[in-house]
Amino acid sequence: MPSVVHEVNIRASPQNFYAVCSHNLSSLSNFCPNSIPYVDKFEGEWGEVGSKMSWSFAFEGYQLPHVVELRALNRSNMSVTFVVRGGYLLENYFNRFQFTIQAMQGVVRWTVQYEKRSEDQVEGTIQSLVRETYMRSALRTPGMYLSGK
């Protein structure tokens, strides 16, 4: 399955960033309201593998709801893996879309794995969508917020 890896510098400690991404997901919209306007849990418990949430991602001026499942937690390497189960991305671009967020000292690494809906889709468009909308924009504010600046 193809993947895109992107790293973003942050000012937050890896522990704080991991805590938000693993157990305090309801606060994501406080950190980046322009990128992720809301996250609501509707099945399971916060921070529980298998829990399902409704996430809204902002893209091209629209709020696009998605169903996202918490797939895996790895405390030792401070990574969290999510699988998109429904919404705009799956309806328009992908058969499968999964992302892992790993917090490290001064950096967050996003690894996105996807299966394109159609081989006719332009690879650059998909990578741009992933990089600009779901990675870079979503991580600017949390790093500032979590560092206390």
What does this structure look like?
It is globular and about 40 Å long. The chain has one domain: START domain (Alpha-D-Glucose-1,6-Bisphosphate, Chain A, domain 4, 2-Layer Sandwich). Strand 4 and strand 5 (79-87) form a beta hairpin. A 7-stranded antiparallel sheet has the order 1-7-6-5-4-3-2. It has 4 helices and 7 strands; from the N terminus they run E-H-H-E-E-E-E-H-E-E-H. The termini are far apart. By secondary structure, the chain is of the alpha+beta class. 30% of the residues lie in helices and 43% in strands. Residues 1-138 form the Bet v I/Major latex protein domain. It comes from Morella rubra. InterPro entries: Bet_v_I/MLP (IPR000916), MLP-like_ligand-binding (IPR051761), START-like_dom_sf (IPR023393).
